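Ticket #4471: structure output looks truncated?

Reporter: J.K.
Steps to reproduce: submitted the chain below (348 residues) through the standard prediction queue, then opened the result file.
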Amino acid sequence: MSRDLALNAIKLQPTPRPGHTEYSVATYHKKLLAAELPNYQGSAEDTRAFHRLWHYDFLWGVNDGPINWGKQGRVTDMGHADYAEGGSDRREAKPCPFTDPEEVYAFDPAREYGVPEHRELVRFYENWYQSMQAANPDQLCTMGYYKTIISGCIQTFGWDMLLLAAAEPERFAVVLKRFADYTAHYVRAQAECSAEVFIQHDDFVWTSGPFLHPHYYRQNIIPHYAEFWRILHRAGKKVLFCSDGTFTEFMPDLAAAGADGFIFEPSNDFEWVVRNFGRTHCLIGSAVDCRTMTFGSWEQVKAEMDRTHALAKSCRGLIWAVGNHIPANVPVDICRQYMAYLKTLWKL
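Returned output as attached by the reporter:
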């Protein structure tokens, strides 16, 4: 494991092997951690020990700042399905506080939630980043922002009201710009911090692909990303774009807008992404699907690993990760076989 290895992969510089990260494991898969770590207690040191054992080089991290939207103004709680072991994170939906699209068109996140003072926000982010990196010295920690545009609208309006408002595309575009302007304030603050890498997260598509007309994305969403990334590039940051769902058709647009890499799940064809961007962009993902690990055989998981390993040879900067996460219902034996075989592939 090596912080430098991950940073070199993002910069498309030579590395002895692909970088490695996983999502959710150390937080949710307690049975795996107990199987892997003697005397597991759930401590921060246990988490670090697991990262060392599994050769993590990179830790996905974003921070939306000190303001809790739900305490400051209106948000829509759509509930939460079972993800953690035993369904401890299950939460029922609550009524949406918006009852008419006109309320959406009038909404301004800066007015609703407030805007932190710039210097205070810079200090907040720098302190957060330094604490994360100090706690994880062997991995590359990142800055980033989660509720960029569409993800911000989802949290505020919920899907139903968002889609109703999108039926008037020109008026909805004004709302999107307000969210973009709000996000830009946080981007400018993070640009002044010492982290080398920034993750721009926005769940702007579905598993089936875009839920708005593709031209609408290119006219009213991706240009805002480009504005953020110009700020970050001027500050010397590398930018990784991250979204759930299938966004391969927009990868050329995102690359033109300034993305230095993509964080994506297996609904995006891994081979296509490698063939089109493996030589020019950092890729964080793989052909290994958590659904295969959960419901398939070891032979099927191994085949996806072999496919990823073969395609990795065409990548200048790859950080290997199972998509979309390794949740608590993935069998422990499969997880341990997965990591043992990955070590074999990499001769670790």
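Triage note (M.O.): checked the attachment and the full token line is present. The chain has a mean pLDDT of 96.
Status: closed, working as intended.
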